[in-house]
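Batch 3, record 17
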Amino acid sequence: MPAPEIVAAMETRFSATPFALGVEIPAAELLTALRALRDTHGYRYYVLGTGTEAAAAFEVTHAVRNLESNDTLFVKVSVPKDAAEVDSIAFVYAGAEWQEREIWDLIGVTFKAHPDLRRILMPDEYPGHPLRKSFAMDTPWGYRPATAAAVEAES
Amino acid sequence: MSGGPIEVVERDFGELALNMGPQHPSTHGVLRLILHLSGETVIKAIPVIGYLHRGVEKLSEHLAYDQLAPVYERDDYLAPTANSNAYVLAVEKLGGIAVPRRAQWLRAFVSEWQRVSSHLVWLGTLGLDLGGALGGGTTLYMYCFREREKILDFLEELTGTRYHTNYNLVGGARYDLDAAMVAKSNALAASVGAALPEFWSMSGGNPIFQERTRNVGVISKDLAMGVGVTGPTLRASGINYDVRKAAPYDAYGELPFEVITRTAGDAEARFQVRMDEIAVSLKLVRTIVEGLPTGPIFARKPLKNPKATKLPKGEVYAAVESPRGELGFHIVSDGSAKPYRLKINAPSFKNLQIVPHILPGGLVADVVAILGSLDPVLGDVDR
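Prediction for the assembled complex:
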């Protein structure tokens, strides 16, 4: 459970709503809130980033940790499904770079000002985002021989 | 032939992009690195991952809670029980399921044996990676695998499986330890412990090894925190964080042990942390069998239908200290019998992310030493 005083600070400054693991904040405040967490509150260790497709919106969650007080805080933002875009925090926490790429790859949320937003686990030319609920388990995707153009583009 | 001095002509070939992997012995699996070189110096490194992506997180949304633990044992295939341990902890936290004390101790017992076996694979393959420096490196590799083989035999006797032991159940452990196995464990700990000084003299005590690893791939404290590297890699950069101490799970709250740290942050420091951790784990398995509490190892009602277990709605995160670092499961539950969304916080994924930060400026030969010192498992990276 996150420290109550940090949850309270987030509530007053960023109009956050607490949940079991941390706080949910408005998407517009994400970058400022994480900067404040890192620089003012000592949450300098990046734990994880994950995305979830909820019923009405996509949820992007970052977890950060204060190693001195040994406290982990989850920061969640909701992103509307028709405009799935949120600020990248890769310049605040370097560790978010790959985690955001993974969220984009699997869930399909775009990160604004991300240094290198490419697919990370799925093939580059893959259509769709597998962790969306509309993506069926048995979606076919068989063997495709490499094309000369693709090889050329990579080198 | 004249015996005059050889004139070395250095020509600038410009920037060269070199593809290392995905099939390369020192990438420990299917990691591909695109190295941009100027001469022998790396100026840019782009890791390409995903060759081993199995879609485990998607699969999780289609299986019931009680069916899932064995699936994750295939993720980090060098320490399978660490994966299922983290998973069952998350499920138990979410469902408020009690675990008998003896089962908690047994989970720690198997985890520590697997930590030793995983670190032995790492040490042996590091020997191969730095082969030339260690007179071929194969000797160290063979010696490490000889000791590891004994541990796998022991685990086979305990669980019926050498590798993917499927030891952890939601609500307990699967196999109990009897007096004969306790004696075997102690004898095994003594025999592996006796081999450690020899391993040390073949690696850390070797001046060429020191030359190859000292001041190579230095990770500063700030970089380690920002990128979120974890486990021995984090502790080698001077940060004392071990999930077993910081957020004790299973029996670790009751067990005395030391967290190994180093401050140098280079490949040698990471090597030293892991070497010392082997000794700590060997001490731990002895402590555990000495203080093993009596009682049942599984306290839930026997399951008639494993697909019927429903968990309350909510969000939960639980982590263990796997041999590679913090391995966590973040589960979002909608109250049904399957996870709504499950994210595996894989330590190798986070440790591998440091690669583009620390390779530039080093030599091509150091790439292999650095990768070996990070100990990534690609099954864990790609999930």
